[in-house]
Here is the input.
Amino acid sequence: MNIEIRPVVIEDYNGIYELWNSTEQSRRALNPVDDSKDGIERYLKRNPTTCFLAYLNDDIKKIVGVILTGHDGRRAIVHHMCVHPDYRRQGIAGLLVQKAEDALRKEGISKIFGLVFKDNDAANAFWEQQGYTLRTNLNYRNKSLNKEVPQGE
Here is the structure.
């Protein structure tokens, strides 16, 4: 299997959205505003060099993985990371993380955080293997400014 990694462009949106819907964990992380085509286009305009996708380098060019990372000039966040269930455990996620981390380093970012559902054991184990530690001294707080975006649990 020949996997290629390249930056995400908005024309990839339909394939990425299909990928996100290939797994329950990714589906439940989506919201109708930020993860709409317009929302992702805004995100990519702010973060054009730190978002990557993995695809099969064949006639189909099927998207099999994606990572969306962005920063505020100080800290970075992994907003979405997904590998299609049929292509997991082949090193794709690790390659995407490495590509995003390298891009963030080039932009002077020295710290990255990500959010993972507590009950997503596989994802939590993956991030631990990548060197991401669990912060237990912080509370994550959020507030929705748009009634279409769920507040969360």
